[in-house]
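FYI - complex with pantoate, inputs then prediction.
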Amino acid sequence: MLTVRTAAELRTARASLAGRVGFVPTMGALHAGHIRLMEAAKKNADHLVVSIFVNPTQFGPNEDFSKYPRTEEADLALCEAAGADIVFLPKATEIYRAGPTVRVTVDPKLSGILCGAQRPGHFDGVAQVVAILFNLVRPDSACFGEKDYQQLTVIRKLVEDLHFPVAIVPVATVREPDGLALSSRNRYLSPAERTAAPAIHRALLHCKGRAEQIRFDRIALPVGKVEEEGRALILKDIPGAQIDYFEIRHTDTLEPTHFIMNRSRAFAAVRVGATRLIDNLLLNG
Ligand code: PAF
């Protein structure tokens, strides 16, 4: 495995790879969810390139950029074990040089909803860095987790609109046995918060149950009512939870719908103590 830190080193290392290249961009603090992304990338390609870069442009001024976990040594060991050929660990000055004059912006219809409503500029920062990483790594395919479903949707649009010749491979969310979606942020939960947090997944499953009931009983249930039930479950089971959103939308367009329909997906962002957790679930289709 080659570890490279500059664009020039990456270019040389990349040129030595023959065959198809699969790419997994990460911000480090790697866990089993990232390993799943790497496995998926290797299935789709002959070589695996991983990037580890805590991207400053996707953090707002009051967000956890400086606190974001940095675990380089452990991350490199995981990449090695997962069979990565190249790991790219750039500094911010390597990616952005003096600071970008040309920027990627995402339509607010997509970037200003769900997580974007409370994190202005976040998805512009994600799209900017992924565009740069795609240009540097030149992968044939790239894997993104479904846990960050809005991010996956933004990346799909980025690739489509800017004609990147990269196949985007979605990878199912990896969960703890009690349903909690794996996240680098789970390590911040206190034992009591960790015990309560799977209520987010249970609330999403409740919505899925309602969607099945709607299909079998041929009833029309307004989305607002089912969202209300999901929110109530979270507030009941997670003491002091603050729900940023709990919404049901169309899985492809992320547009809101009045009734639960084919390809509806439920999305949640919940503050459990000081930790903000997100999750989502396809309800049908
Ligand atoms: O999902 C992440 O870890 C980041 O948003 C990504 C895609 C690596 C861009 O910085």
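The chain has two domains: 2-171, 184-279. Residues 72 and 114 are 31 Å apart (CA to CA).
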